[in-house]
């Protein structure tokens, strides 16, 4: 069954008098466990699509089924609950809370979900170990390197064990070597069954994905499966 | 999000911006401290006056001739005409009431005092030996008027401190003869200086037995009857008993006014309480200003932390969770500010007491409670708007601000 099913999605922004069609006639289906890159030039609607998939934005028309459930009609609070449990975000600029330590940043989604402190501590310790951040638990973001920051962000995005991981230019603020390391980390998570969707400018990163969605002017230009490994999708 | 987590999150957020936080805490603290110190001053003034008044005599009830609708001292009390006068017999009857401890009749007039080659106009008070205790006066020389039948009086006088100084400067006055009007009287005592009380300056009064005064002024009426109740709790009983007794004695007519020191005190008390409340109101303006400052600080916080709010939303925070976090932060700023201000205010009142020991500058409880509650509620009230703004923020736009 498709984890993500978009049908007839339109998203229109009003800028003064003019209407901008950020997304038009979008029909996409993504299976559970897929590794998808969303690519295209600036203004092609990649970010809008990602925000929509992450339930941060609503389409003007069309339906979005997440794990078989129509999430377009949910209330804001219901959508927040879905984001909390089923969706993990990774941002280009990491978006760590500067006054919180690495451990506290990782615990943030669990704290917002109302998970008890004892359980949080257990899962944070595990996550710190999994992402090689054991010795950095009490460091604040400004005491961490870029790669470490993004690892903290990934740990935070996955600590609630979401179904879908959405990454917006995850390597945009990192050098090549660190970027590769981050991508490898995300691919590992994908191999363990997490659906991974990456928005990127970078052809090289895009080509590593099993499926590429090329966007142009708010519409899907092409939908290719590059790697034979993804043939099962 | 659990409540404890909301509080911890808000605390960390406030601690993350120390300058901003300490400035708004300071503003709130100054507001609360102003209320505490100013009401301490106002209430201190009230207590000071009340204490001074209590020195008039304890548990004092005063009967004056004439029916007056109002309580308390009133110029009309002095000029009311009355069908039946107060007499020494009335006073003697009052003496027999169960709740009454002492009674002192008071007849008053002015006369010339002539002694030691000096002449002076003086207020003459005809009264009895009990007057000293009823008014809690102290002697500086000799004795007060001797215990005697009120209808007869020995030719003796007690003079106030000022008269003693003016007529017998430097020397002892006891035993001296004076001429008061057409009478020759022997001074048996001099009162200690007490200042003004009951509308006359006791230091300039000559006290003589009531019978002599009435004969001197050719009258049989009394100016006042002063009564000391057995205790504070007996004051109301005294008032009732005296009113009904005199009504019976005066042919069923209520032609006297019974006032208590409490009534006089209550007037002053009310006046100074109103003053304190007014001062507290003025100080409360600074609390409102502090509340607005908290609002400003929270608005800045919301703007500064826009991307954090976007992140929290992306991580699954509901609108009300974000609102609660910001409200909790505003409440903390106000609470810490209020408590700091309370401490500062108490210290200020302490300094005042050290500087003016006679002045009991303690903040009244109501003012402290009102100041703390106002500080908290303005902080919360002014926290609502920024918190709602944060809760309503569009996550996509908020995330883009970085």
Explain this structure.
The complex is a heterodimer of chains A (233) and B (402). Chain A is built from 7 helices and 10 strands. Chain A has 233 residues and is of the alpha/beta class. Chain A has a single domain, classed as P-loop containing nucleotide triphosphate hydrolases (Rossmann fold, 3-Layer(aba) Sandwich), CATH 3.40.50. A 6-stranded mixed beta sheet of chain A has the order 6-7-8-3-9-10, with helices on both faces. A 4-stranded antiparallel beta sheet of chain A has the order 2-1-4-5, with helices on one face. In chain A, α3 (102-112) runs parallel beside α5 (146-158). The longest helix of chain A is centred in the last third of the chain and has 16 residues, at 176-191. Chain B is α+β, with helices and mostly antiparallel strands and 402 residues long. Chain B folds into 2 domains: 3-52 and 268-400, no CATH class; 83-254, no CATH class. In chain B, 55% of the residues lie in helices and 18% in strands. Chain B is built from 13 helices and 12 strands. A 6-stranded mixed beta barrel of chain B has the order 2-3-10-5-7-6. A two-stranded antiparallel sheet of chain B has the order 8-9. In chain B, β2 (100-115) and β3 (118-127) form a beta hairpin. The longest helix of chain B has 44 residues, at 261-304. Chain B is elongated and about 105 Å long. The mean pLDDT of chain B is 86. At the A-B interface, α2 and α3 of A face α1, α10, α11 and α13 of B.
